[in-house]
Design brief:
The chain is an alpha+beta fold. It is built from 10 helices and 9 strands. The strands form 2 sheets. It has a 6-stranded mixed sheet. A hairpin with a 4-residue loop joins strand 7 and strand 8. Helix 5 crosses helix 6. The radius of gyration is 19 Å and the shape is globular. It starts with a helix and ends with a helix.
């Protein structure tokens, strides 16, 4: 089964079921030191398909270690985080969708993690419904009905994307880009990225240069600054916290790099972004 039909089959199942619970992850408390959690700058949800996927997240002011059971639904706002347990146990499966700025990212995790990216931005209607669910911040009949409508729209957008499907090379590129984006706080190097994405280091460098016109180090720095700028939209995060989660060990260095890129400081830019 190719990735798009797999995603469509998951949505079919979700539409045929009723969610058993609806919860909301938060930005705070921040993930504990050493956690693989990522402060995702875009809204997303996770839906348990089978088994009990172990997760850790911030909910109602506490760090909660729990399981994502079949039918359980977890929404995460921009800047929210969810850490999944390493490895995938037999019978575990979940489905997730991320509303990126210029595309939708569908994720199916069972025996392995599979991704599918659309080639166009999510519709404004989809964004509005997602925002309305996040505004609920509680398990309610309204939230559950909105989620059903959201799933129907996601199915429509997925079907539309199949008529303009990305090439295998473009899907590989988006997968690699997503891996880098999700690991910006790590010490990223060519060998590490290549090994985790089943590509040779030479081909990785060639692909990044072809797609971005940049060398790996310059591209990673570009993504770190873009990510930090997205996190600035969350007023609950300090500049120091944003710097750390974007992969900068020293906030002063982050501020200098940010000023060089955007000709303004992170603090000044936050005021403009928040207007």
């Amino acid at each position: 089964m190719s990735e798009a039909p797999r995603m469509s089959a998951s949505l079919d199942r979700i539409l045929a079921e009723e969610p058993v619970s609806l919860r909301f992850a938060e930005t705070r408390p921040l993930p504990p030191p050493g956690s693989p959690a990522f402060l995702h700058p875009f809204p997303r949800f996770l839906y348990g398909l089978s088994g009990e996927r172990r997760i850790t997240c911030g909910i109602e002011g506490e760090i909660i270690r729990t399981t994502l059971k079949p039918g359980a639904l977890l929404f995460s706002p921009p800047g929210g985080w969810v850490a999944e347990s390493p490895g995938i146990l037999p019978g575990e499966a979940l489905f997730s969708v991320v509303l990126l700025r210029n595309e939708l990212r569908f994720i199916h995790v069972s025996d392995v993690k599979r991704l599918y990216h659309t080639n166009r931005p999510p519709s404004e209607t989809l964004r509005h419904i997602f925002s309305a669910i996040l505004a609920e911040q509680r398990d309610s009949s309204i939230g559950r009905r909105l989620f059903k409508l959201l799933a129907e729209l996601l199915q429509s957008e997925l079907e539309a994307s199949l008529r303009e499907a990305l090439s295998e090379s473009d899907q590989l590129w988006k997968t690699i880009r997503e891996f880098i984006e999700m690991n910006l706080a790590e010490e990223l190097n060519r060998e590490f990225i290549a090994a985790r994405n089943s590509i040779s280091p030479e081909n990785l460098s060639r692909l990044i240069r072809e797609k971005t016109g940049l060398a790996l180090r310059a591209y990673v720095n570009e993504l770190r600054l873009q990510y930090a700028r997205e996190l600035l939209r969350n007023p609950r995060l300090s500049i120091e916290e944003i710097a750390s989660h974007a992969g900068y060990h020293y906030s002063n260095y982050f501020i200098r790099a940010y000023r060089k890129k955007y000709q303004t400081s992170p603090g000044s830019d936050r005021k403009l972004i928040s207007r």
